[in-house]
Amino acid sequence: MALPRAHRLDLIKPFQVMELLGRARALEAQGRDIVHMEVGEPDFPTAEPVIEAGVQALRAGKTGYTTACGLPELREAIAGHYWRTSGVHIDPSRILVTPGASGALLLALALVANAGDGVLVPDPGYPCNRHFVQHLDARAVPLPATAEQRFQPQPTDLAAVWDDGCVAAMVASPANPTGTMLAPGQGAALHDWLAERDAALIVDEIYHGLVYGAAPPTVLTERDSVLVVNSFSKYFGMTGWRLGWLVVPDGMQQDAEKLAQNLYIAASTPAQHAALACFQEPALALFEERRQAFAQRRDYLLNAVREIGFRLPAEPEGAFYLYADSSSLAEDSHALCRDLLEQAGVAITPGLDFGTLGAAGHVRFAYTNSLERLQSGVERMADWLRG
Amino acid sequence: MALPRAHRLDLIKPFQVMELLGRARALEAQGRDIVHMEVGEPDFPTAEPVIEAGVQALRAGKTGYTTACGLPELREAIAGHYWRTSGVHIDPSRILVTPGASGALLLALALVANAGDGVLVPDPGYPCNRHFVQHLDARAVPLPATAEQRFQPQPTDLAAVWDDGCVAAMVASPANPTGTMLAPGQGAALHDWLAERDAALIVDEIYHGLVYGAAPPTVLTERDSVLVVNSFSKYFGMTGWRLGWLVVPDGMQQDAEKLAQNLYIAASTPAQHAALACFQEPALALFEERRQAFAQRRDYLLNAVREIGFRLPAEPEGAFYLYADSSSLAEDSHALCRDLLEQAGVAITPGLDFGTLGAAGHVRFAYTNSLERLQSGVERMADWLRG
C-alpha cells in the first residue's frame, strides 16, 4: 500500500536558497554574524498608513468575503494608478484582485493552458513560473535569456524554441533575478508575434515602480491584449498580506471571475481595505522614499561587486537584484555561494535557483538590506576573494 | 487572431446562486425586502479577541512572509486543538497552514493527481471540489450520494464508479450542502478500501465544530494516512481573512511544503497571528455561543420547512445547511428558487449548484441569518406555497 504521488512533484526542485538559509540560521545560532543578500523580500515593514487602514478595517468588522474580483473601489484605485503612472486607461472590470501575485499567476495560466500545452518561461527567471506551468501538467519550455540580449527575449528568441503545442510566453519586467526591463516597443513586438499564433503574452510586472532611471511604463501602454501580473508585495511593501492583481484582456473577464470564484473565492478582505491606502498621498511619499533608498543601494552594490571581480554586462534597471556573472571568480556558483556563506559569512543565491542556462556562472545579490550591511558584506567578500 | 482559452473553462459552470444573488440585489435596489437563506457565510463577524490579535500583529509590524508551512506556533496550536477536541496526536510537521481551505484543496489535489487521473467527488457536494479537479485537467468522477445513505458514501459506492485511472476520493464531514457526517468507522472503511488500491482519501472537515448533537470526531482519530482539509472560516468565523489548513499523512510533508512554496509562498501573516487567538479562552467561549445559536436555528428551520412540505429524510448533523427534497412541491427546483425569490422575496439555492444527481428535486437552505429573519422567510414561503 502506498499513497499516490503526482508526477509534477519530481519536476519541482527544492530552492537552493532554502538550504543556504537553513545553514545561515544554523551558523547564526552558533553566534556567527551573517550578511543576508539572498532575501527576496524588502526589509521595509508595511508603511504606517497602510497598517492603519488595515487596523481600521478590522475594527470596522470588514472581515467577510468580498466578491471574487475584489473590492470595486480597490479595482478602481488600481485603474487610477495606471492612469497616473502610465497614462493608460484600464477598465476596472479587467482588473482582478488576487491572493498575491501567486494567485494572479495561477489564474493567468489556468485561463490559457491545458495539460500538455507549452508555455515559454525565461531562463533565468522566477522559478515558480516554471512550477506554476508544471502544476497544470503543461510544459514549461525554457526561453533562453542571455546578458547580450539584456536577459529579455525578442520575437526571434520565441521563434527559436516555439513548437505547435505552445500557447503562451511569460516574461517579466523588471525581471527577477536580472533586474532588466523590456525596452520600449519590445512588449508590443512579443505580443504581435504571439498574437499571429493565437498565443498569449503574460507579463509579470510585480517589481514595477521599483525602477531606477528612465522607467519604461507598463506593457499595457503598448498593447491591450496582454495578461499582466502585479503585486502589492514589492513596491507597496505588503508581502505577508498576500495581495496582488491580474489585468486580463477584454473578453476574458467572465472566465477569469469564474476561475477566481472556484480557485480561491476571494483575496483577503482586510488586506484589500489596507491596500486602498497605498494609492493615497502619505503612503505614496513613503514608497518614493524607499525607492530612492533602493536606488542608492543599487548604485553602491553594482559598482562594489564589479570592483571585486563580478561582471554585469546588462545593467539592472529595476527590482532589488543584481544577477552577476561569477565565472571569472569560480567555476561553480553553487560552491561559491556555499563557501561565501561558510567562510565569509555572506548569503547570496546561486544561479541554479533561476534556471539552468549559465546558472553555474551566475549568482544573485538582493539589496534588501541596509547600505551599511551591504558594505560589510562586500568587504567580507573582497577579503575572502583575496584569499 | 484569438487568445487561447483552456478547455477547463467550459467545464466550470457559473454558480446559479450568483445569478440569484444578483437578482436579489436588483430587487433590493428597487426597495423589496429579501430574506437571504442562500449565503454560505456565517452572519457573525470575526470574534473580538481574534480582531484584537490581528490589530496587535499589524501594530507590531508582523507583515513579512512566514515560512510556507505557516507559523510554528499556529501549527502547534492546531495540533493542540486536535488533542483537546478529538484526543488525537497530530505532529505539527504534518499541518500546513494554507490560504483558506481553497489553498488546502489546491495542495491536496496537486499532491496526488496528474492530468487524466480520476478523483471521486460526491454528488451533491461542494461544487469547487469538482472544479479543483478539473483545474488540474484531472477527471472529476461523480460519486452519487443519496438521502438513503445519508449522503455519505460506503466502500461499495466507491467501487460502483471506480476505474483503474482513479487515484483519490473526496468526502466532506459535515458536508455541504447536506450537513451530514461520516458515521463512526465510515472514514476508516473508505480509507482502507482506497489504500488497497494505493489511492488517497481526502476529507473536507471545514465545518468541523459546527455540529449539533453527538459530534463524531475528526477522521484522523480513525486513520492517520488521510489528507484532511480544514478552515478558519466557518467555526472560527474568519471567512474574509482566507485561512485554512491541510493535514497530510506522514511522509508527504516535504512534497507539500515544496508545492506550498511555489503555489502561494505562504498564507497571510496577519491572519495567522490573529488565528492564534482562536484557540484561547475568550474566543473559544464565543464560538461555543455561536454554535448554540446555529443549533437553535437548525432545530427551528428543520421543523419549519418540513411543515411547509419539504422533506429531509437524512437529518443534517452539522454545518449551517439543510438540503431539502422539494420534489413534492415543484418539478424543477431551479424554477422554484426563482419563483420564491421573485414572488415571495426569499433567496435559497437550487440543487443544480451542487451536482446533477437529484438536483432538480432539491434546494439548499442556509441558516446564516437570524432566527427572526428565518421565521419571516418561512412565513413568506408558506404563504406562497398555499398560493
Task: Explain what this protein looks like in three dimensions.
The first copy, chain A, has 387 residues and is an alpha/beta fold. The first copy, chain A, folds into 2 domains: 143 residues, Aspartate Aminotransferase, domain 1 (Alpha-Beta Complex), CATH 3.90.1150; 233 residues, Aspartate Aminotransferase, domain 2 (3-Layer(aba) Sandwich), CATH 3.40.640.10. Chain A has a 7-stranded mixed sheet with strand order 2-8-7-6-5-3-4, sandwiched between helices. In chain A, strands 9-12-11 form a 3-stranded antiparallel sheet. The mean pLDDT of chain A is 96. Chains A and B meet through α3, α5, α6, α9 and α10 of A and α3, α5, α6, α9 and α10 of B.
What does the secondary structure layout of this molecule look like, with pairings?
Two copies of one chain form a homodimer.
Chain A (H helix, E strand, L loop, with lengths): L7 H4 L4 H14 L5 E2 L11 H12 L12 H15 L8 E4 L1 H13 L5 E6 L3 H9 L3 E6 L10 H7 L4 E7 L13 H10 L4 E5 L22 E5 L12 E4 L5 H11 L5 H7 L5 H27 L13 E5 L7 H12 L1 E2 L1 E2 L11 E5 L4 H16 L1
Parallel strand pairs in A: 1-10, 3-4, 3-5, 5-6, 6-7
Antiparallel strand pairs in A: 2-8, 7-8, 9-12, 11-12
